[in-house]
């Protein structure tokens, strides 16, 4: 199969009269289907795949629901990365992906939602193409499965907010650049991100204990919809990573008698629905051990993680481990790790997880 070249990558508006709908393609990540058959995407890192032949142009139809009303997608055709696409507005629109394609060739399209749940829910309707299109089965996904639970770090918040040419905005968040997606690529695995900026295990970044917690998010198909319920049987991971605590500890240290039982309860719930999974607890990459206040938070959080692991070991359960992650300082623009730092974090985690899972290459 030929790779796309730059001469094939024009982006043009498609005349609706020429278009034929193809419902959903294949999704990777937590979504919810509406009664009308549309797909709602709230969590970051949700991917949509399609494979087709017989047409020169391909687009997709989508709109936004709630939040800040902005959804950004990474776009690939035959593995070639095209400019990101921004979905805006409550009314469905058609967003061109590529044109000047060779109708005799088969093409693989992948779109990956970049940004955070609070930026809005994407209402995905369909891929659109000319009536001559032939829809093919997408390439198989990796057999290995990874799930990453966490906060804005796991979302990849501001992972692309760095120089020399930079402007602040929701587009600067890229879930695919975050450690979870990078870890999945290193381990040749699928990945689901269950993450939301500002959230914690027992309180949010402002200390609000009435905020939605990670344990509640774990049960949902849409992060801001309390009555949405995810079918855990729909995606059974081999390993679950949990990177939480940065927001819990932001207002100050939380004592073990409050934090450890809550963490144990979350891990017990994960193992109840995924009894064969391994669980890796990760400390915060944003806590600086060289800073007195931050260093104390890091020390206390890691002692809590050790206590959680010890609890399961005392029960004879060897499926739970913890990892003291290095400090990744972001930049002078923002303290969140940037894409190259996320990649280093993924390499660090892969060196730990690979041998434990028997996935070392």
Can you describe what's shown?
The protein is α+β, with helices and mostly antiparallel strands. The protein contains six helices and 17 strands. The chain has helices spanning 152-155, 179-187, 214-218, 256-273, 292-314, 339-357, and strands at 19-22, 26-28, 32-33, 39-41, 47-53, 58-65, 70-77, 80-88, 93-98, 106-113, 121-130, 134-136, 144-150, 189-195, 239-243, 278-282, 320-323. Strands 1, 3, 4, 6, 9 and 11 form a six-stranded antiparallel β-sheet that branches. Strands 2, 5, 7, 8, 10 and 12 form a six-stranded antiparallel β-sheet that branches. The protein has a five-stranded parallel β-sheet with strand order 14-13-15-16-17, with helices on both faces. Helix 4 (256-273) links the parallel strand 15 (239-243) and strand 16. The radius of gyration is 21 Å and the shape is globular.
